[in-house]
Every structure is written in C-alpha cells, then in structure tokens.
Amino acid sequence: MKPVHPIQRFVRHLSSHPWQVRRYFSAAALQRIEQAIADSEHQHAGEIRVVIESGLPVAAVLQGVSPRQRAIQLFGQLNIWDTEHNNGVLVYLMLADRDVEIVADRGIHRHVREQGWQHICQQMEGMFRSGHFEQGITHGITAIGQHLAAHFPPEATPRNELCNRVLVL
Hints:
By secondary structure, the protein is of the alpha/beta class. It is built from 7 helices and 4 strands. The protein has helices at residues 6-14, 21-24, 27-41, 58-62, 67-77, 106-129, 133-151; strands at residues 47-53, 88-94, 99-104, 167-168. Helix 3 runs parallel beside helix 7 (133-151) and helix 6 packs antiparallel against helix 7.
C-alpha cells in the first residue's frame, strides 16, 4: 500500500461514515457473505468473523492507529481469541485506508503463519482494486476455510462459537 500523507488520511477518515459501506456492499451482498461464512464453517471446526469499517474515529486517526492495530483491537473486543480450539480468524476491511487485515488465533496461525495470511490479503486487495468487493471477501473466506479444514476438520457436533453476521462499523 502506498504511503498516504497524514492530512489526507485524516480527511479520508473524517469523511467516512458507516452508510458508505453500502456503496460497496448491498444488504443482499452482506447476506451472501454471511452465508459464505456459514457454508465454510460446515467444512471445518474453525470460526470466521468479518468486520467492515468505513473509517476510524477521529481520536484513533490522530493517534495514528493503523488498520492492523485496529484489527487486533477488534479481535480482542469481539472475543475471537476465545474459541475452544484457538482457531478464530478475523477478516477486517478498512475502507478509508483501502486495507484488509487478517488476524488469526494462535491455533491456526501456527500452521498458516503471517506469509499465508498476507497472501490471502493481497489476493483480496487485488479483487477490491478491480471493484469486486463481495467476491474479494468471499474469496478470502474460502481461502481461510481451506486452511481451517486442513488443520481443524469438522466436529461430529458442530458449534457456532462466533456470530456469522458481518459487522459494519
């Protein structure tokens, strides 16, 4: 990602509002993403959560909070770290910064490592640059699901530890 001047970043975040997410993701698209999460989670014992944020609060921008820092913060706030097998994964899209981050709990992270997550992020960002936002998210869900299925096969009695609803901030 190309560096952005702090003033440009501030203006971009200041002018961002949650309703702008609808420019890229219709209600139907969000439902299809939620269904993709549910379908993926039938193939493994992991948990996937998607958060799309239009822009950071002003205080966070002034403090220089990066998309990665915000993703880690949300990972904790949403208790994604608290799954039975430590295999929760957060897909975080920051529209104002045009950035996607994946934060994974230690159970799955030790198998995929940062390079694997970055590869998925790069693929998603390429789709976003082409205007394919829904497909970018669903591609990420599928790729993450493949890693989870390889290391956490489905359980006899499936459980859904995290909400599949896309959180729009």
